[in-house]
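Quick review question:
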């Protein structure tokens, strides 16, 4: 893959993240309700168990993490995502020492 194609894909992904974040902020109460539904029906537990842990966690540990996730306001999370996309550190990169 050429650098130009990679840049196009990155910009396309960034635009999708912006649209998703803005929609999440606008529909925050609905999104929060859907997140709670995934907690209540167990699908949040299953997906977190399969994709986030190594398989040795207890039910209490898994439920603790899931409860922390569902308590987080989706609008706050989306605003954080937008802030990360706006952050530009290109001026700092040349000052970082890297061994050859």
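Suggested answer, residue by residue:
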């Amino acid at each position: 893959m050429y650098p130009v194609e990679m840049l196009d894909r990155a910009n396309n992904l960034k635009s999708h993240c912006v649209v998703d974040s803005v929609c999440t902020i606008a529909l925050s109460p609905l999104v929060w309700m859907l997140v709670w539904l995934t907690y209540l029906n167990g699908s949040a537990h299953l997906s977190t168990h399969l994709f986030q842990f190594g398989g040795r966690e207890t039910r209490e540990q898994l439920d603790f993490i899931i409860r922390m996730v569902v308590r987080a306001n989706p609008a706050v999370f989306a605003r954080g995502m937008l802030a990360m996309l706006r952050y530009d550190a290109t001026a700092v990169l040349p000052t970082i020492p890297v061994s050859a």
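Why it works: Helices lie at 3-26, 28-41, 43-51, 59-71, 74-86. The CA atoms of residues 6 and 12 lie 10 Å apart.
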